[in-house]
TrEMBL record:
GO terms for molecular function: ATP binding. This is AAA family ATPase. One of its GO terms (biological process) is DNA replication. Belongs to the IS21/IS1162 putative ATP-binding protein family. Residues 99-229 form the AAA+ ATPase domain. Keywords: ATP-binding, Nucleotide-binding. It comes from the Bacteria.
Amino acid sequence: METLETIKKQCQLLRLGAVTGKVEALADRAAAEGLSYLEFIRQLLDSELEDRRRRDQQRREKAACLPLNHHLEQYDSSREERLPKARLEQLKELTWLDQNYNIILMGPSGTGKTMLSAGLCYHAVKNGYRAYFRTMEQLMTILRTKDIATVARADYARLTRAQLIVIDDMMMISQNKMEANAFFHFINTLHEKTSFIITTNKSPKQWVEILGDEVITTALLDRLLYRCEIIQLAGESYRMQNRKSIFETIG
Protein backbone atom coordinates (compact mmCIF):
# COMPACT_ATOMS: atom_id res chain seq x y z
CA MET A 1 0.00 0.00 0.00
CA GLU A 2 2.90 2.31 0.74
CA THR A 3 4.21 1.82 -2.80
CA LEU A 4 0.74 2.53 -4.25
CA GLU A 5 0.41 5.79 -2.31
CA THR A 6 3.90 6.82 -3.41
CA ILE A 7 2.97 6.21 -7.07
CA LYS A 8 -0.24 8.24 -6.65
CA LYS A 9 1.71 11.15 -5.17
CA GLN A 10 4.23 10.93 -8.00
CA CYS A 11 1.37 11.01 -10.54
CA GLN A 12 -0.03 14.10 -8.83
CA LEU A 13 3.36 15.83 -8.95
CA LEU A 14 3.62 14.99 -12.67
CA ARG A 15 0.03 16.24 -13.14
CA LEU A 16 -1.19 12.87 -14.43
CA GLY A 17 -4.70 13.41 -13.09
CA ALA A 18 -6.43 10.54 -14.88
CA VAL A 19 -3.74 8.01 -13.94
CA THR A 20 -3.81 9.01 -10.27
CA GLY A 21 -7.29 7.62 -9.75
CA LYS A 22 -6.81 4.47 -11.85
CA VAL A 23 -3.40 3.16 -10.77
CA GLU A 24 -4.80 0.60 -8.34
CA ALA A 25 -7.50 -0.72 -10.69
CA LEU A 26 -5.12 -0.98 -13.62
CA ALA A 27 -2.45 -2.65 -11.45
CA ASP A 28 -4.97 -5.25 -10.23
CA ARG A 29 -6.09 -5.90 -13.81
CA ALA A 30 -2.49 -6.22 -14.99
CA ALA A 31 -1.79 -8.77 -12.27
CA ALA A 32 -4.98 -10.75 -13.02
CA GLU A 33 -4.31 -10.84 -16.76
CA GLY A 34 -0.57 -11.35 -16.46
CA LEU A 35 0.26 -8.22 -18.44
CA SER A 36 3.87 -7.30 -19.07
CA TYR A 37 5.35 -4.19 -17.48
CA LEU A 38 5.38 -2.48 -20.86
CA GLU A 39 1.71 -3.24 -21.50
CA PHE A 40 0.80 -1.99 -18.03
CA ILE A 41 2.65 1.30 -18.66
CA ARG A 42 1.00 1.62 -22.08
CA GLN A 43 -2.46 1.29 -20.53
CA LEU A 44 -1.61 3.86 -17.88
CA LEU A 45 -0.47 6.37 -20.49
CA ASP A 46 -3.44 5.60 -22.78
CA SER A 47 -5.76 6.36 -19.88
CA GLU A 48 -4.08 9.72 -19.26
CA LEU A 49 -4.04 10.69 -22.94
CA GLU A 50 -7.70 9.80 -23.43
CA ASP A 51 -8.69 11.88 -20.40
CA ARG A 52 -6.67 14.85 -21.69
CA ARG A 53 -8.29 14.56 -25.12
CA ARG A 54 -11.73 14.54 -23.51
CA ARG A 55 -10.99 17.57 -21.32
CA ASP A 56 -9.43 19.45 -24.25
CA GLN A 57 -12.57 18.78 -26.32
CA GLN A 58 -14.74 20.10 -23.49
CA ARG A 59 -12.61 23.26 -23.21
CA ARG A 60 -12.78 23.92 -26.94
CA GLU A 61 -16.54 23.38 -27.04
CA LYS A 62 -17.00 25.78 -24.13
CA ALA A 63 -14.80 28.42 -25.79
CA ALA A 64 -16.78 28.03 -29.04
CA CYS A 65 -19.92 29.33 -27.26
CA LEU A 66 -22.27 27.25 -29.41
CA PRO A 67 -26.04 27.76 -29.22
CA LEU A 68 -28.21 24.95 -27.87
CA ASN A 69 -29.17 23.55 -31.29
CA HIS A 70 -25.88 22.70 -32.94
CA HIS A 71 -26.23 19.10 -34.07
CA LEU A 72 -26.41 18.70 -37.83
CA GLU A 73 -28.27 15.40 -37.41
CA GLN A 74 -31.32 17.48 -36.45
CA TYR A 75 -31.26 19.49 -39.68
CA ASP A 76 -34.11 18.58 -42.04
CA SER A 77 -32.68 18.34 -45.56
CA SER A 78 -35.79 16.69 -46.99
CA ARG A 79 -37.62 19.94 -47.71
CA GLU A 80 -37.02 21.33 -51.17
CA GLU A 81 -35.96 24.81 -50.04
CA ARG A 82 -33.42 23.52 -47.49
CA LEU A 83 -29.76 22.64 -48.09
CA PRO A 84 -29.69 19.21 -49.81
CA LYS A 85 -28.21 16.35 -47.80
CA ALA A 86 -25.46 15.74 -50.37
CA ARG A 87 -24.26 19.34 -50.12
CA LEU A 88 -24.41 19.23 -46.32
CA GLU A 89 -22.29 16.08 -46.27
CA GLN A 90 -19.79 17.79 -48.57
CA LEU A 91 -19.56 20.78 -46.20
CA LYS A 92 -18.99 18.41 -43.27
CA GLU A 93 -15.83 17.14 -44.97
CA LEU A 94 -14.33 20.60 -44.15
CA THR A 95 -12.12 20.74 -47.26
CA TRP A 96 -13.39 24.31 -47.73
CA LEU A 97 -12.01 25.16 -44.29
CA ASP A 98 -8.57 23.80 -45.16
CA GLN A 99 -8.65 26.00 -48.29
CA ASN A 100 -9.68 29.14 -46.33
CA TYR A 101 -13.04 29.46 -48.05
CA ASN A 102 -15.87 31.48 -46.51
CA ILE A 103 -19.55 30.54 -46.43
CA ILE A 104 -22.44 33.00 -46.42
CA LEU A 105 -25.80 31.55 -45.39
CA MET A 106 -28.46 33.97 -46.58
CA GLY A 107 -32.22 33.83 -46.15
CA PRO A 108 -35.23 34.86 -44.08
CA SER A 109 -35.41 34.34 -40.34
CA GLY A 110 -36.11 30.79 -39.25
CA THR A 111 -34.78 28.97 -42.31
CA GLY A 112 -32.01 27.11 -40.47
CA LYS A 113 -29.06 29.46 -40.95
CA THR A 114 -28.01 29.47 -37.29
CA MET A 115 -28.39 25.70 -36.89
CA LEU A 116 -26.31 25.03 -40.00
CA SER A 117 -23.55 27.47 -39.02
CA ALA A 118 -23.44 26.24 -35.42
CA GLY A 119 -23.46 22.62 -36.59
CA LEU A 120 -20.53 23.18 -38.93
CA CYS A 121 -18.70 25.03 -36.16
CA TYR A 122 -19.28 22.12 -33.76
CA HIS A 123 -18.14 19.67 -36.45
CA ALA A 124 -14.93 21.71 -36.89
CA VAL A 125 -14.30 21.75 -33.12
CA LYS A 126 -14.77 17.97 -32.97
CA ASN A 127 -12.19 17.58 -35.71
CA GLY A 128 -9.57 19.59 -33.85
CA TYR A 129 -9.98 23.03 -35.44
CA ARG A 130 -9.99 26.27 -33.44
CA ALA A 131 -13.56 27.33 -34.20
CA TYR A 132 -15.80 29.89 -32.48
CA PHE A 133 -19.42 30.99 -32.75
CA ARG A 134 -20.28 34.63 -32.03
CA THR A 135 -23.30 36.74 -32.85
CA MET A 136 -22.65 40.05 -34.61
CA GLU A 137 -23.67 41.83 -31.40
CA GLN A 138 -21.20 39.81 -29.31
CA LEU A 139 -18.40 40.43 -31.80
CA MET A 140 -19.01 44.18 -31.87
CA THR A 141 -18.99 44.26 -28.05
CA ILE A 142 -15.60 42.51 -28.11
CA LEU A 143 -14.23 44.99 -30.64
CA ARG A 144 -15.54 47.98 -28.67
CA THR A 145 -14.21 46.84 -25.28
CA LYS A 146 -11.06 44.81 -26.02
CA ASP A 147 -8.79 47.68 -24.96
CA ILE A 148 -10.48 48.22 -21.61
CA ALA A 149 -11.91 44.84 -20.52
CA THR A 150 -9.80 41.78 -19.69
CA VAL A 151 -12.45 39.27 -20.79
CA ALA A 152 -12.96 41.01 -24.16
CA ARG A 153 -9.20 41.25 -24.69
CA ALA A 154 -8.79 37.52 -24.06
CA ASP A 155 -11.68 36.67 -26.38
CA TYR A 156 -10.29 38.94 -29.09
CA ALA A 157 -6.90 37.23 -28.83
CA ARG A 158 -8.63 33.86 -29.08
CA LEU A 159 -10.52 34.91 -32.21
CA THR A 160 -7.39 36.22 -33.92
CA ARG A 161 -5.91 32.70 -33.67
CA ALA A 162 -9.08 31.02 -34.99
CA GLN A 163 -9.26 28.80 -38.03
CA LEU A 164 -13.03 29.30 -38.27
CA ILE A 165 -15.30 32.07 -36.96
CA VAL A 166 -19.07 32.03 -37.27
CA ILE A 167 -20.68 35.48 -37.27
CA ASP A 168 -24.38 34.96 -36.68
CA ASP A 169 -27.01 37.56 -37.66
CA MET A 170 -24.53 39.78 -39.46
CA MET A 171 -25.93 43.17 -40.39
CA MET A 172 -28.77 42.91 -37.88
CA ILE A 173 -27.54 45.94 -35.94
CA SER A 174 -26.68 49.37 -37.32
CA GLN A 175 -23.11 50.57 -36.84
CA ASN A 176 -21.54 53.96 -36.69
CA LYS A 177 -18.47 54.71 -38.79
CA MET A 178 -16.02 53.90 -35.99
CA GLU A 179 -17.65 50.52 -35.38
CA ALA A 180 -17.80 49.76 -39.11
CA ASN A 181 -14.09 50.59 -39.33
CA ALA A 182 -13.26 48.30 -36.41
CA PHE A 183 -15.27 45.48 -37.98
CA PHE A 184 -13.51 45.92 -41.33
CA HIS A 185 -10.06 45.89 -39.72
CA PHE A 186 -10.97 42.71 -37.82
CA ILE A 187 -11.97 40.95 -41.06
CA ASN A 188 -8.97 42.36 -42.88
CA THR A 189 -6.57 41.12 -40.18
CA LEU A 190 -7.84 37.55 -40.58
CA HIS A 191 -8.35 37.67 -44.37
CA GLU A 192 -7.00 34.48 -46.03
CA LYS A 193 -5.89 33.12 -42.64
CA THR A 194 -9.29 32.36 -41.12
CA SER A 195 -12.50 31.05 -42.66
CA PHE A 196 -15.80 32.73 -41.85
CA ILE A 197 -19.34 31.44 -41.83
CA ILE A 198 -21.73 34.37 -41.95
CA THR A 199 -25.49 34.17 -41.48
CA THR A 200 -27.60 37.08 -42.63
CA ASN A 201 -31.05 37.98 -43.87
CA LYS A 202 -29.59 40.89 -45.84
CA SER A 203 -28.13 40.62 -49.32
CA PRO A 204 -24.58 42.00 -49.74
CA LYS A 205 -26.09 44.97 -51.62
CA GLN A 206 -28.02 45.90 -48.47
CA TRP A 207 -24.94 45.82 -46.20
CA VAL A 208 -24.02 49.39 -47.10
CA GLU A 209 -27.28 50.54 -45.47
CA ILE A 210 -26.16 48.99 -42.18
CA LEU A 211 -22.50 49.96 -42.32
CA GLY A 212 -23.32 53.42 -43.64
CA ASP A 213 -20.15 53.65 -45.71
CA GLU A 214 -19.94 52.44 -49.30
CA VAL A 215 -16.13 52.39 -49.36
CA ILE A 216 -15.88 50.20 -46.23
CA THR A 217 -18.68 47.93 -47.47
CA THR A 218 -16.99 47.45 -50.85
CA ALA A 219 -13.65 46.64 -49.21
CA LEU A 220 -15.34 44.24 -46.78
CA LEU A 221 -17.19 42.41 -49.55
CA ASP A 222 -14.00 42.25 -51.61
CA ARG A 223 -12.34 40.24 -48.84
CA LEU A 224 -15.26 38.06 -47.81
CA LEU A 225 -16.42 37.15 -51.32
CA TYR A 226 -12.95 36.47 -52.78
CA ARG A 227 -13.12 32.77 -51.84
CA CYS A 228 -16.70 32.24 -50.83
CA GLU A 229 -19.74 30.00 -51.26
CA ILE A 230 -23.07 31.83 -50.96
CA ILE A 231 -25.90 29.52 -49.94
CA GLN A 232 -29.40 30.92 -50.35
CA LEU A 233 -32.01 29.42 -48.03
CA ALA A 234 -35.73 29.99 -48.46
CA GLY A 235 -39.10 28.82 -47.18
CA GLU A 236 -41.21 29.49 -44.14
CA SER A 237 -39.78 29.85 -40.68
CA TYR A 238 -39.10 26.46 -39.08
CA ARG A 239 -39.86 27.95 -35.66
CA MET A 240 -43.24 29.26 -36.77
CA GLN A 241 -44.16 25.99 -38.44
CA ASN A 242 -43.24 24.04 -35.32
CA ARG A 243 -44.22 26.57 -32.70
CA LYS A 244 -45.59 25.34 -29.41
CA SER A 245 -48.54 26.75 -27.51
CA ILE A 246 -49.13 26.96 -23.77
CA PHE A 247 -52.72 25.83 -24.48
CA GLU A 248 -51.86 22.51 -26.16
CA THR A 249 -52.00 20.56 -22.91
CA ILE A 250 -55.34 22.00 -21.82
CA GLY A 251 -58.27 19.61 -22.45
